[in-house]
């Protein structure tokens, strides 16, 4: 009976000693790792919470990488559009100078050469790379420069649309080069005035809308005639005569038809014809400069022709500038949206990190206190085991 009790006491004391040693080891491991949950078995519920939080952080990090890519490329694109705007401003200043009445053919040809240099720089900007074998204005992707200088003018050979960064935020990493560079509205955005036949010294201005509700979308022609020294004009609508027939002409006096108002100045000759047609989104930045270069390179023009060319070229460059500025504004709006998405992702990541910390991190103050208690318990267990060991019958008889 004594032998069984002694063995039981030894086993029981040793079991408690091993248990306290294990608890002390676990507490020491928690202190060294700084985490309360190191294995799923430590706290299955908390471990699951921490895993879900970690997945949320990982998703935020992955999305943030895509957002950062879009931000980098859109920043580059915004800079490219800014460069293009500055170049077009230089072109506009050259065209304003071309309107100087004292300039002759030689001066205008020099301005044409200046515009040729600006055009070449603009083509380089339009084909600017993104640093990753892509192009800022390549649309939905292109492994070659998206714009090619063909005999008929610059053409877009990329794929229209925008490429987007991976993820669910739908953020662009390119712009549609065709829409950005080749689709400015002609004329004043509603209608376009032009000289069809101009042998006199008259010219037509850009015009404006006097009554938007009266716009018909038809094509009009203003045809001049001169009888006995009296100049008159007749307006045709889609080739059909209107009520404005043989109207007395006065230079610089506004002409109004179906909600459109424009001015013809100078002395038109018999048969001179001016057209007013609906605006279309077909004006290319490069075509606008090509026309200006060709006009400035043409010698021996009369004052009306010079004024007509200068008016049209300034109008075209202004329209191209407006289109690029609109694209730049869109990019700016995208960058602002990216800032908002970045803030949201940062908040999502912080929330996930906080949730994970709450689920598995250790309260150091409480953990140190628990460790000290477990260490004291372990020391007490060692002393208890030592005392029990000395109480065996053989040791008692030997004393």
Number of helices: 8
Question: How many strands?
Answer: 12
CATH class of the largest domain: Mainly Alpha
Question: How many separate domains make up the residues?
Answer: 2
Strand content: 5-15%
Overall spatial form: elongated
Quaternary structure: single chain
Write down the overall mean pLDDT.
Answer: 84
Looking at CATH, the homologous superfamily of the largest domain is f41 fragment of flagellin, N-terminal domain
CATH architecture of the largest domain: Up-down Bundle
Category by helix and strand content: alpha+beta
Describe the largest sheet: 6 strands, antiparallel
How does the SSE layout of this entry go?
Blueprint: H1 2-33, H2 44-98, H3 105-126, E1 147-150, E2 153-156, H4 177-181, E3 191-197, E4 203-204, E5 208-209, E6 220-227, E7 230-237, E8 240-241, E9 247-248, E10 254-257, E11 260-265, E12 273-278, H5 285-297, H6 303-360, H7 364-389, H8 393-398
Antiparallel strand pairs: 1-2, 3-12, 4-11, 5-11, 6-7, 6-12, 7-8, 7-9, 10-11
Helix pairs in contact: 1-7, 2-3, 2-6, 3-5, 5-6
């Amino acid at each position: 009976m004594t032998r069984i009790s002694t063995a039981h006491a030894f086993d029981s004391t040793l079991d408690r000693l091993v248990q306290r040693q294990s608890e002390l080891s676990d507490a020491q491991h928690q202190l060294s790792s700084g985490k309360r949950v190191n294995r799923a078995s430590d706290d299955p519920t908390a471990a699951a919470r921490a895993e879900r939080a970690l997945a949320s952080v990982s998703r935020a990090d992955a999305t943030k990488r895509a957002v950062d890519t879009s931000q980098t490329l859109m920043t580059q694109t915004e800079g490219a559009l800014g460069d293009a705007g500055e170049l077009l401003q230089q072109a506009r200043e050259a065209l304003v100078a071309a309107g100087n009445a004292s300039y002759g053919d030689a001066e205008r040809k020099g301005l044409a050469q200046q515009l040729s240099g600006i055009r070449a720089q603009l083509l380089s900007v339009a084909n600017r790379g993104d640093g990753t074998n892509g192009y800022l204005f390549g649309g939905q992707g292109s492994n070659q420069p998206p714009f090619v200088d063909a005999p008929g003018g610059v053409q877009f050979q990329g794929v229209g649309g925008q490429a987007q960064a991976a993820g669910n935020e739908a953020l662009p990493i390119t712009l549609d080069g065709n829409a950005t560079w080749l689709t400015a509205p002609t004329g004043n955005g509603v209608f376009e005035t032009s000289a069809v036949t101009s042998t006199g010294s008259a010219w037509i201005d850009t015009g404006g809308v006097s009554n938007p509700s009266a716009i018909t979308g038809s094509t009009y022609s203003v045809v001049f005639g001169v009888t006995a020294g009296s100049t008159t004009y007749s307006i045709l609508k889609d080739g059909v005569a209107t009520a404005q027939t043989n109207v007395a002409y006065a230079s610089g006096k506004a002409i109004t038809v179906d909600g459109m108002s424009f001015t013809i100045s100078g002395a038109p000759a018999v048969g001179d014809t001016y057209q007013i047609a609906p605006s279309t989104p077909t004006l290319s930045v490069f075509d606008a400069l090509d026309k200006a270069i060709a006009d400035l390179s043409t010698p021996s023009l009369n004052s009306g022709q010079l004024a007509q060319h200068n008016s049209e070229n300034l109008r075209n460059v202004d329209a191209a500038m407006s289109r690029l500025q609109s694209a730049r504004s869109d990019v700016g709006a995208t960058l602002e949206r990216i800032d908002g998405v970045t803030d949201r992702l940062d908040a999502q990541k912080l929330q996930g990190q906080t949730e994970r910390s709450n689920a598995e991190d250790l309260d150091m103050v409480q953990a140190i206190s628990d460790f000290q208690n477990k260490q004291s318990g372990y020391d007490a267990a060692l002393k208890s085991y030592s005392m029990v060991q000395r109480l065996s019958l053989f040791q008692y008889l030997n004393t």
